[in-house]
Amino acid sequence: MTSDLPDDLKTFCAASNVALAIASPDGDCPLLMVNEKFSALTGFANAEVVGRNCRFLQRDADNAEARAQIHSFFDTPEQANVRTDLVNFRKDGTPFVNLLYMSKLRNRDGSVRFFFASQFDISRTRADLLADYDAALEHTLGRLRPLMSETGTILDGSLITIANSATMIAQAKLLLSTLTETPDLG
């Protein structure tokens, strides 16, 4: 499936310091490629996830609000991107709160060619690490724009969604604490 991706895009994603995934807009939005940072974050290798929808990482987590935001992103052609936090699970079953950023990579005719997503574990992070992630993602997106332009693909939207996320960190910590709390049996 990675053969569907332009070589420059594959090389770019592989070299990124940000956990990245690229999915097809067709059918159930199967993953076409994930990079090593994604594999390090989730424990899943590229070969284990290509062809699957990324929702398998959610297992049975509720994520109702995040799912609604993601569905709105998919269903609203003019919506350029989405940024939300949701509970995911690593291959070993460990839960983490994923700060997901997704954007549409479009053909020149405006049709969606790929979904481009980055992931960041905000479960136990600090605001300064999230700021570093935001800066790395901004840099990544900035480098992606000219590359996509050369291949006839447009990164739709802007970097407006790359903003201060201290509230998301606090919410993630609260959510994760409810997942790991054990009932008082005493």
TrEMBL record:
NCBIfam families according to UniProt: sensory_box
Organism per entry: Paracoccus shanxieyensis
Keyword field: Chromophore, Flavoprotein, FMN
Record keyword Flavoprotein present: yes
Domain PAS: 20-53
UniProt xrefs under Gene3D superfamilies: PAS domain
GTP-binding among keywords: no
Pfam families (UniProt xref): PAS_9
Name of the protein this chain belongs to: PAS domain-containing protein
UniProt cross-references to InterPro entries, sorted A to Z: PAS (IPR000014), PAS-like_dom_sf (IPR035965)
Recorded superkingdom: Bacteria
Signal peptide bounds: none
